Amino acid sequence: xxxxxxxxxxxxxxxxxxxxxxxxxxxxxxxxxLQHGYTADQVVLRIEQLLRRLPPGARRxxxxxxxxxxxHWAQLEELSGVSVYFADPHAPWQxxxxxxxxxxxxxxxxxxxxxxxxxxxxxxAITMQINSIPRRSLGWDCAYKHHYxxxxxxxx
Length: 156
Hints:
By secondary structure, the protein is of the alpha/beta class. 35% of the residues lie in helices and 19% in strands.
């Protein structure tokens, strides 16, 4: 628990994006709105805001692809206390949990969608639905239950 994978889902014509983060062990996913663009500064601040929702023991590392949106990764490490790692270029199999999560997210945010119209509240509603889906990889539990059980084990 606490080892996350992240990425951006890019909207129509590359004009908008949404941050995706998911815990590797529990499959708990989070989405972050980037309504005003996706510069490195904006992405780092949104990721840091998402990470603050997790207790310190549940935020240890973030693995990202080679996108320029993480140019300020050192700032993210300083703000959040996580270690940032990068997958090899063109190697999505090094972040498989995130790739699967992004596929689930695309059911609600199809390719070609203007993602800037989605508020953080809209994305929270989508996240709630996704994290409530029973998954075979979690023994037919949902990510919320898996994450809760891991938190209890972490504090107990």
